[in-house]
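Objective 1b: paired records.
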Amino acid sequence: MRPSEGAPRIALIGAMQEELSAVLALMPDAHCETVAGRQFWLGHLSGHAVVAVLSGIGKVAAAITATVLIEKYQVHSILFTGVAGGLAPQVKVGDVVVGTELLQHDMDASPLFPPYEVPLLGRSRFQADQRMTQWLLESAAQALPHAQVHAGLIISGDQFVSSASESQRLQSAISDALAVEMEGAALAQVCHAYGIPLAVVRTLSDRADDDAHIDFTQFVKNVASGYSAAIVSEFLKRFPKA
C-alpha cells in the first residue's frame, strides 16, 4: 500500500549512500519511487512503516527532500542520521552527537537581522523534538556502548569545514556548538514550518580540521553506515507503534 493511501510513515534520511546503505539492507520489502531526482524507499523496519531516502548534500538538497517527504509521503516524524565534524574540544572522532538544537552558521542578513537569525522568523535556533531526542540518546548508548554520546547544538552550512582555522573561528563564534555538518538546520527549519517532529544524530567522522577530508572519507566508508543502522534499529524499538 502506498503511503498516500495508508498509514503515515516515519522518514529516515541520510545525506550519503554510505550512511544509509545498511539501513536499506534492513528493509527487504522496500520498493523504490523516484521524485525530484531522489529515490524514496518505502517499506517496513522494526514493525514501522518507513520511507528512507538520501537527501543529497547541502541545505537546499535537504530542504527539498524534507518537503517532498511531508507533502507527498505525509510522514509524521523525521529522523536524520549521518556524520559530522567535531568542534567542541570534548567531542572526539567516533563519538555520537544527538542534536537538541540546530543553527545555520552561514545565515547572516545583518545589519537587517542579527547574525544567524532566519529573516522574518525571529529565531536562529530550531529545537529538535524532545521525546525523539531522548529516544535517540538511549538508542545510541544501547547500540554503541563503547562510544561517547553527547547532546547539544549542531550547526549547519553549505561548506565542508576542513581547516583548523575555520573550525577555530566557528568554535569562537558559536561557543556551545558540538559539531558541524551541511543539512540538519535546513531540515529543522522545514520541520518547524510544517510542525513535524525532527530528530538528528551524527557520528563524528573527523575534527573539521586540516585532515578532515582524509578522516571523513575513511570513516564514511568503513564505519558510518553500520553506526546509522544500529542506532536507527534501537530507535524504532522505542518509537510507539501506529
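Objective 1b, second protein:
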Amino acid sequence: MTTALFSPYTIKDVTLKNRIVMAPMCMYSSHNQDGKVENWHKIHYSSRAAGQVGLIMLEASAVTPQGRISNEDLGIWSDDHVEGLKELVSLIKELGSKTAIQIAHAGRKSMADGDSIAPSSLPFNDQMKTPVEMSIEDIQETVEAFKQGARRAAEAGFDIIEIHAAHGYLINEFLSPLSNHRKDQYGGSKENQYRFLKEIIHAVKEVWTGPLLVRVSASDWDERGLSAEDYIPYAEWMKEQGVDLIDVSSGAVVPARIQVYPGYQVKMAETIRHGAGIPVGAVGLITSGIQAEEILQNERADLIFLARELLRDPYWPRTAAKELKTEINSPVQYERGWNN
C-alpha cells in the first residue's frame, strides 16, 4: 500500500525518507551548564533514528548563553560546541535519518542566570524576571549570534536549520503586539515587527545554503494577539526570503488557556499553507498513523512533526506503518522482531 506518510519528501536538496519529523523538545540535560552534548543526547536522538524517523531535529540550541531557556540547555554560541554536535550528527546519519537543529534565543522567558532581554521591558508573568529592553546594538549583536550559530551548525554537518520564532521566545516576542510595544523601526507596523526575523533570516543565509525552516506560533490564543490569518503576510515574506518550510505551532507568548484536542493546530498550518503558498509542518496531538495520513492526503500539511508521541514510542514509525498496513524498512539488527 502506498502512503503519503511513508513517501519521500525533498526540501531544497535534502530528501527525507518519510514525512515524519521529530519535533524539537528541550531535554535540559547539559548538566555542566556549558551547553555541550552529553551521552543522554546521543542516546535520545539516535534511538529515534533507529526507529526510522525521517528527520531528527535537535532541541532549541541557544545562540548566546543569555539566550538559554535554562542553564541546562544545549548551546551553539561557541565553537567549543561543534565537536559534540558533529558526533551526534554522525550517529543519527549512520542510522539513516536526516538531521536538523533549531537555533534559538529565549528572550524574556529565559530562566538562565543573569538578566533577560526582550523587545520591550514586559515580563511574561508575575513570577518571571522583568527583561531589559533591547537597544539597537543588542539587536544587531543578537542577529550576528544567530548567524554564527548557523555557521557552527553547518560545520557540525546538519542537513537542515530551523529558526525558532515561536512559543513566546525572543523572535516571537518581536512578532506579537502583545510583547512588542516598541516605537522605533522594530515595532508598531507589521513590517516593523517582522524586521528582527527578516534580519536574522538574511544573516543566516549568508553562511547557510541548505534548507531553512522557521517555527512560528500561529495563534497567541488571545483576542488582542495574532491569529493564523495574521501570519499569512509573515509567511509570504519568509517565502520571499527563501525560507523553505514553516513549522506551525501556537501559543506561549503570553499566559493563555488553550483548548487542546487531537490535531488542534493543524487548521493553522493549513491556513498558512494555502494562504501563503508555502510548505508547512503540522504539530500538536498527532498520535496515530491514520490521523497523520489524513492530514497529508488532504494537503493540509507537508510534514508531520511529532513530539510527546515520540517520547512515548521511539519506534512510532513502525506503529504507524502497522496501523496503515504498509511495510517499512527495519534496522537489520531488529528484523527478527520488527516484522512479527
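The chain has one domain: 9-335. The radius of gyration is 19 Å.
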